[in-house]
User: Fold C-type lectin domain-containing protein from Pieris macdunnoughi.
Amino acid sequence: MFLIKFSFLLISANVVITFGEQSQKFFRSDYEKYLPETDSFYKVHGLPKTFDRAKETCEIEGAELFYPVDEDEAKAMITYWKEKQFFSSIYIGVSAPFVPEVYQTIHGASIDTVYNKWAKGEPNNHAGNEHCLTLLDDTTLNDINCDTTKSFICKKRASAIHWNLLCDLPDKRYEYVEQLGRCYKFHTNPRNWTEAFRACNAEQGYLAIIDSQGEADHLVNVTKMAKKDDVEGNYLRGAIHLGFVKKNSMWRSIMGRPLKSLGYKTWGTNQPDGGDRENCGSMFFNGKLNDIGCNQQCFFICEREIPLLENSINLRFGDYDDVQ
Assistant:
C-alpha cells in the first residue's frame, strides 16, 4: 500500500485551486529516502539529541524513531546516513525502560524479534546506567546512557500514512476552515513557547497568528471544543501560545510584521503587563492577546497555509524583508 495524492478542486472565496497529482510514493519532502523493501520513508537528523528528545522529535513529525528489523535495513540506513554526513553511531528505537538489560522496541516488542547483532562485549550496562541502544557504523549494536546526545533517523511506514487532502499533509488532526482558507490544530500537550514553535514547524505549520476578528473567534471556538479539561501537569491554564514575540521593544508576528499592522491587535485588560519578563505571545481563552514568559508551559495552536499558491504566506502577511 502506498500513497498517491489525487488532484481535486477547492473552491473558496470565488477562487478555484487545483491540487497537483503526486504520482510517486510520498510522505513529506524532508523524508527523502524511500526503501521499497520496507515500504517506508526515512529522514536523518544530524543534530544530536538525547534518546527521549530524539523519540519525541520523530513523533512530532508524525513518524517514529528508527530501529532495524533486519540486517538489510541496518546496512541500508548506515549507507544512507553516510551519504548525508559521517556518524560513528546513531540512536535506534530500542531501550530498556522498565528493567535493565530487558530491551524492547518503541512498539513494546522484544529485541529478540528484530535485528540484534551486538558489538563485542555488549551490552555491558556500564556503571548500571546504559539503557538505550545505538547502531554502530559496522552494523553492530551498543548500549549507552540515554542522556547521551546522538544523531538519529526517523521512519514512517507507508501503510501508516493517512493523508489530509484539504490541508495537504499527513496529519488528520488539522482542520480546514473554509471561511479563513487555512488549517488549524489545537495541541493539548502543554509546551513552552520555544517548544511549541518547534512542534508547529515540525508539522509543516507555524504557531497561529490572529489576523482578523473572525480568526480570533474561530480560535476561541477551537479552544472551547478542545478536549483539554482532563490534561494533568504543571502548566498555565487559561492561555494559549500564539505566533508573536517582542523584539527590540516591539511586538511582532513570527512572520516579521509589527502586531499593530495586522488585522487583529486586541489585548486583554491591562495587557501587556510583563515587561521584560514576558516576551512571548499568547491569547486568553476569550481570544484577547496576552504577553507570557517564554518558558511558561501551556496549550498552543498550530496553523498551516495550504501550499497551493506560491508565496501564499506573503499574500497574507506581506514580504518579511520589508519589516527588517
